[in-house]
Specification:
Helix content is 38%, strand content 19%. The chain has helices at residues 16-24, 55-73, 95-105, 144-150, 156-166, 185-197, 215-221, 232-237, 239-243, 262-268, 295-303, 317-330, 345-354, 378-402; strands spanning 8-9, 30-35, 83-88, 113-118, 134-140, 171-178, 202-207, 247-250, 253-255, 273-276, 281-284, 287-291, 306-307, 309-314, 336-337, 361-364, 367-370. The chain folds into 2 domains: 8-268, TIM Barrel (Alpha-Beta Barrel), CATH 3.20.20.70; 317-402, no CATH class. By secondary structure, the chain is an alpha/beta fold. It has a 9-stranded mixed β-sheet, sandwiched between helices. Helix 13 packs across helix 14.
Length: 407
């Protein structure tokens, strides 16, 4: 970790960080752009968001985004970049800025998919987002009581109106949250059915998580809010989506054929991508790096042509295997090909059996997958597999010590 006072200079390009990027000629396959502005801050959100969208600040920020991208364009090759994702925050507040920025980026590459995260509002028009191919609406729930608990500033009718108006023109995703206090599985199922009836082609369903530094997290820790202990029934009703033809291509994501989110697949497939904007993350090769979460610092550094990178992490071989397992198991229909892990597969499988983990897994054609009835405890299963991976590494190290290759 580098402190917020440390930076990577552009001029001179003398840092090892920049030298590595320049020498290897990386070709990111996607670009993520973080927009931190919101009309309100949701009490469960742990992203950098909720910054009031003051006109001059927004204008200054979008100018900085262009400048940051140009700084990277000096040594990154964007010829294979096919996805663009505007996340936040609430990017949908600024369609004209997003459109202009997209046209700016098109000078460097063509995009197959352009996604925008949008909050439902009766003021939105599909024509405002003609530059995009995919719209992701933060519906969360159609239930007014649960919307109030989540601190959302839209109504049931806002959501229905947006989905019905936008679905004929875009590949539309509806984001949902489940496991809300006092929410029943049948209410969650009702949310999913309403979305399908409104024409959506993609649904994301995320378990409400009380992140430590959020108002919700504080209330849960103090016992003021109680979350459901058993979330298995919520996962069970989600099977309805598969019954009507959707594919569960990631634990939390369902889509009809041809509507998978190509940008998110970059993350799950461990492909290279560039993140720009305050708090954004990037992955190039075996390096992950992040920008500062301090908006004032971000703007001042960019204006001085200095990268606002505050964290650089080199992915070790062991961490790479962790990622391959974690992300592979989240892709529930594909799983993890254990013969691509470059470990002692016989020892690995033996330990999985000894730890009783195979009861949670399907093993076929060299791939392990989490059985669908155990997806609600996927995090537990993956942590246990990590422990097995550690033991496999230890066994390999002992074997190498007893049979040194140089003898």
């Amino acid at each position: 970790m580098i402190s917020d006072n440390s930076v990577v200079e552009v001029e001179g390009k003398s840092s090892s960080f920049l030298s590595s990027l320049i020498e290897k000629s990386f070709k990111p396959k996607g670009i993520y752009v973080h927009i931190p502005f919101c009309q309100i801050k949701c009490p469960y959100c742990d992203f950098l968001s909720g910054i009031p969208p003051e006109d001059e600040l927004v204008k200054r920020y979008f100018f900085a985004l262009k400048k940051e991208f140009l700084m990277y364009s000096e040594f990154l090759d964007f010829s294979e970049c096919s996805t663009l994702y505007f996340g936040g925050g609430t990017p949908g507040l600024f369609p004209s800025y997003l459109s202009e920025f997209t046209e700016f980026l098109r000078k460097f590459t063509d995009f197959e998919e352009i996604s925008v995260e949008v909050n439902p509002s009766s003021r939105l028009l599909p024509s405002d987002f003609s530059f995009a191919t995919r719209i992701s609406f933060g519906i969360q729930t159609f239930n007014e009581k649960h919307l109030m608990f989540l601190g959302r500033n839209h109504s049931f009718y806002d959501s229905i109106s947006c989905l019905e108006n936008f679905s004929p023109h875009f590949s539309v995703n509806a984001d949902f949250i489940f496991g809300i206090p006092e929410q029943s599985p049948s209410e969650h199922l009702g949310d999913l059915k309403i979305a399908l009836n409104s024409g959506v082609r993609h649904i994301s369903a995320y378990l409400l998580t009380p992140y430590e530094n959020t108002p919700l997290g504080v209330k849960v820790k103090r016992g003021l809010v109680k979350l459901p202990e058993d979330v298995q029934p919520f996962f069970e009703v989600q099977s309805y989506l598969e019954e009507v033809g959707m594919i569960r291509y990631e634990i939390s994501n369902f889509a009809f054929e041809g509507n998978f989110c190509k940008h998110n697949l970059l993350y799950w497939n461990r492909d290279d991508f560039l993140g720009i904007g305050v708090s954004s993350w990037s992955k190039l090769g075996n390096v992950r790096f992040a920008n500062t979460r301090n908006l004032k610092l971000y703007l001042s550094q960019i204006e001085r042509e200095i990268f606002p990178v505050v964290e650089i992490h080199h992915i070790s071989k062991k961490e790479e295997l962790y990622e391959m397992i974690f992300l592979g198991l989240r892709k529930v229909s594909q799983g993890v090909d254990i013969f691509n892990l470059n470990i002692d597969t016989e020892e690995f499988l033996k330990l999985l059996f000894e730890r009783g983990l195979m009861q949670f897994l399907d093993f076929c054609d060299g791939k392990i997958k989490i059985k669908k009835k155990f997806l609600s405890i996927a995090d537990f299963i993956i942590r246990e597999i990590f422990d097995v991976l550690d033991l496999t590494f230890q066994s390999s190290e002992i074997h190498e010590h007893k049979n040194p290759s140089h003898l």
